[in-house]
Amino acid sequence: xxxxxxxxxxxxxxxxxxxxxxxxxxxxxxxxxxxxxxxxxxxxxxxxxxxxxxxxxxxxxxxxxxxxxxxxxxxxxxxxxxxxxxxxxxxxxxxxxxxxxxxxxxxxxxxxxxxxxxxxxxxxxxxxxxxxxxxxxxxxxxxxxxxxxxxxxxxxxxxxxxxxxxxxxxxxxxxxxxxxxxxxxxxxxxxxxxxxxxxxxxxxxxxxxxxxxxxxxxxxxxxxxxxxxxxxxxxxxxxxxxxxxxxxxxxxxxxxxxxxxxxxxxxxxxxxxxxxxxxxxxxxxxxxxxxxxxxxxxxxxxxxxxxxxxxxxxxxxxxxxxxxxxxxxxxxxxxxxxxxxxxxxxxxxxxxxxxxxxxxxxxxxxxxxxxxxxxx
Length: 376
Ligand SMILES: [Zn+2]
Known about the structure:
Layout: H1 2-14, H2 24-33, E1 40-47, E2 50-57, E3 61-70, E4 90-92, E5 95-97, H3 101-120, E6 127-134, H4 142-149, E7 156-161, E8 169-173, E9 175-184, E10 188-189, H5 199-213, E11 219-220, E12 224-225, E13 227-235, E14 241-242, E15 245-254, H6 260-277, E16 282-291, E17 294-295, H7 301-312, E18 319-322, H8 328-335, E19 339-341, E20 356-358, H9 359-374
Parallel strand pairs: 3-6, 3-7, 7-19, 8-18
Antiparallel strand pairs: 1-2, 2-6, 4-5, 5-20, 8-17, 9-15, 9-16, 10-14, 11-12, 13-15
Helix pairs in contact: 1-3, 3-9, 5-6
C-alpha cells in the first residue's frame, strides 16, 4: 500500500492546482485515471477549467457516508526558497514534499485508496460511499457551494473531511467573519481639523468600539479564544489634509457560542450611532467571508464509532479543534449532519514553505476510513 500511496500522491502533487486559478479539471482527469472505467461518477463544471468530482460506490443500503476533500492548493509565493521543487513530490525519510501534500492531497489520496479498496476487492460496503472532490476551497468555495446548491450533497448522512489533523479527531473548527469597513468623512486643511471629519480617526474609533463588544476572553477547551485582527488599513492622501476616506479589513475568528449575526448587528448599530454623532460621516460595512464555527459532541454516535475504530486499530485517541475553516462550514449549517475533520498530515504544515506529509500517515488514515466503513 505504501508504494501505491506514494505514486498516487506524487501524481496529484505533479499537477499544479494552486488557486488562483485552480485548474481543478486537470487533476479530476488524473483521479479518474486511477479508477476502472465503469465507475459511477459525476463531474460538475464550474467553467474556466474548474470543476468538482463525485464518485459513488453503491453499498448494501442507501444511507450515504460522505468524504469531502478539496483539490486546490494555496499558491507558492517563492519557489526558489523551497528545499525541493514544490511540484515534484520528492520523498525523503518517509515524507513527501510539495505544495498540497498536507493541505490536502494527502487526504485526497487517502480517499482514493479507500474507494479503490472496495472496488478492487469487490466488497460492497454496508452503506453507500460518496467521495466528493471539490474546487476552490482555499478561496470562495465555489466547488462545495455549487454542489450544495445543486442538492448533490443533501443525501450524505455523515461526513469525513480529511484535512490534515495530525491524525487526531477534529470535532470543532473556528468560524471566520471577514469585514471590510469604509469610512467617509470630510476633508479639510490639516491646520483646521475642526472643519473636517477625519475618516481615519473615525474608522479607528469604529473598529475599537466593535472589538469592545466582542467576548474575546471566553475560552473553548479545544479552540481557545476568539480573535479580532485588523489586517489591512488604508486612507488619506497627504500629511496636511484631513482624510476624507479610509478603509480597513478585519478578520474575526470565533469559537462556538459566538453568533456572527450578533456581531453583525453590533457592527451596524455602532456605525449608525457614529453617523448620528458625527453628521456627514458615513460608515459602510461589507461582509467578505462569513463561515460559522462548528462543533460536534464527543458523545455523538458518529464520533463514538470513530473512537472505537481508533481503539481497534490501536491508534491513540486524541481530540482536536481546528483553527482554520474547512468545506464543512459551507455544508454542516445547511444539512445539519454529523461530521468529523480527520486526515493525514500535520495541521501546521498547511500553506507552509517545504510543505510535507508522511506517506505512512496517509496509509494509516486510509486504513482507518476503511475500517470505519466496514464496521459502520
Ligand atoms: Zn485544506
